[in-house]
Design goal:
single chain; about 450 residues; alpha/beta; Aminopeptidase; Alpha-Beta Plaits; 2 domains; 6-stranded mixed sheet; globular; binds zinc ion
């Protein structure tokens, strides 16, 4: 009975938290290649214990864990999560150590608790609620847990290529989501793409006494000039053809967006600014949020930045830049256009040291699975904002041909993913599990 499954969650919140604590204690940092096999095996064991056909797929990089429970139902639900986490540095900004979970004021703190081990464990417990109470699962379940999401899912396409049949499902729950600024739950139907590149200029054989600046070129100066050529004063990206082919938001998307209050004032206050870029507000702000590509300098390195002064002319300078891409943009195309831009501007000496990227992906707002999620959410939470896409990036495009994905989860606006003192509200963790039980139930009636 469904009621038994719901009651099971209510009775087992503490046990689910213990499970969450166990998995966040493993520092599965993909960027450092730490703790990945161990975490994969832990998850495989949990799925196996629930009666799933659970497997570890060795691919280049961190293994992918899959679980399949075929109950012979008409519909199949997929859960996509990742068991890797961001590095926890800087450690000294954590109030309690990142890999020693701590509960205070109704929140659980640890690296990865929001992004996205809390979601992963909530899914496992929602399934456990059916299985342990002998409640018939009305849908088949597929779980896909990868271990390199935080480093761009670089090898995940390799898994998909080899397991196309497994990737098919009627609906899937993506790896993040939760409560917004105003306490209202949010669902995300898409993610932007990304093109990330590291630029380097290396124009002298070595760093030189800066007195030679009268006759020698400066690497940081040239890099700064190149970077300043990327945008005009109106923030328009100056790369030739950069905006070509961008798909405008559809009428159905605008209908969904018009219902959403993005709380401009709260965002401004949160980030300590008076105005958004170019004074964006209202519908223009929304259009930018959901459908504008970006060009952001993520880091700059050159010369001496230590104590006091050092009169040096640096030989080298480098920068990391990300471009968020929207539907209709291709990372390979952007790479070529960016290269051409630098060459055309006279910066052929600036090299691409490395780069990576993937395109945007979206689930149509009128897909019936979106309504299944909406109905399940309404059983537990007051409301649900359905965002056609997130301003963030993720490899959703990989799933696009196989399964419509919706992102809901147990985080909230204060979760501080990727930052020190990452946390989730225990109340959202509990309700998130209940919502998933309802989701499985609702999907069985679709
Ligand atoms: Zn993340």
């Amino acid at each position: 009975m469904m009621d038994d499954a719901l009651e099971f969650i209510e009775q087992n919140v503490e046990n689910a938290i213990e499970d969450l604590k166990e998995i966040v204690r493993i520092p599965s940092v993909a960027a450092k290649n730490e703790g990945l096999d161990e975490t994969a095996e832990l998850l495989r064991g949990k799925l196996d214990a629930l009666g799933f056909d659970a497997k570890i797929h060795e691919i280049t990089g961190a293994p992918v864990v899959t679980g399949f429970l075929d109950v012979g139902a008409k519909r199949t639900l997929m859960f996509y999560d990742h068991y890797d986490v961001q590095p926890a540095e800087p450690f000294d900004l954590w109030e309690t150590p990142p890999f020693e979970p701590d509960i205070r004021d109704g929140r659980i703190y640890a690296r990865g608790v929001a992004d996205n081990k809390g979601d992963t464990i909530s899914r496992i417990w929602a399934l456990k609620a059916f299985i342990d109470t002998g409640t018939d699962l009305p849908v088949n379940i597929k779980c896909v847990f990868e271990g390199e999401e935080e480093i761009g899912s670089i090898h995940f396409p390799e898994f998909v290529e080899k397991n196309k049949g497994f990737m098919k499902a009627d609906g899937g729950i993506w790896e993040f989501g939760g409560e917004g600024y105003d306490g209202v739950q949010e669902a995300w139907l898409g993610l932007k793409g990304i093109f990330y590149v590291q630029l380097e200029i290396d124009i002298l054989t070595r760093d030189v006494h800066s007195s030679m600046g009268c006759v020698l070129p400066s690497a940081p100066q040239r890099l700064a000039e190149a970077l300043s050529s990327l945008k005009d004063a109106d923030q328009r990206i100056q790369i030739d053809g950069f905006y070509d082919g961008i798909k405008p938001l559809t009428e159905a998307e605008w209908n969904a967006i018009d219902k959403i209050d993005l709380r401009e004032e709260d965002i401004k206050e949160n980030y300590g600014i008076k105005e958004f870029l170019t004074g964006l507000t209202g519908r223009d702000f929304k259009e930018a949020y959901y459908n504008a590509p970006t060009c952001t300098i993520c880091g700059l390195t050159s010369g001496y930045q230590g104590k006091g002064s050092m009169t040096v002319l640096p030989a080298k300078a480098s920068a990391k830049i990300d471009f968020r891409l929207v539907e209709g943009m291709d990372p390979e195309d952007i790479k070529k256009k960016f290269r051409k831009h630098l060459d055309d501007q006279g910066f052929s000496d600036i090299k691409f040291l490395w780069y990576e990227g993937y395109p945007a992906g979206k689930t149509p707002v009128d897909n019936p699975f979106v309504d299944v999620v909406r109905r399940a959410n309404a059983k537990v939470f007051d409301d649900l904002k359905v965002h056609p896409t997130s301003p963030g990036s993720g490899p959703l495009y990989i799933f696009q041909d196989y399964v419509p994905m919706v992102s809901i989860g147990v985080s909230d606006f204060d979760s501080k993913g990727h930052s020190p003192n990452e946390s989730i509200k225990i109340e959202n963790f509990r309700k998130g599990m209940l919502r998933l039980v309802h989701l499985i139930d609702e999907m069985g009636r679709w």
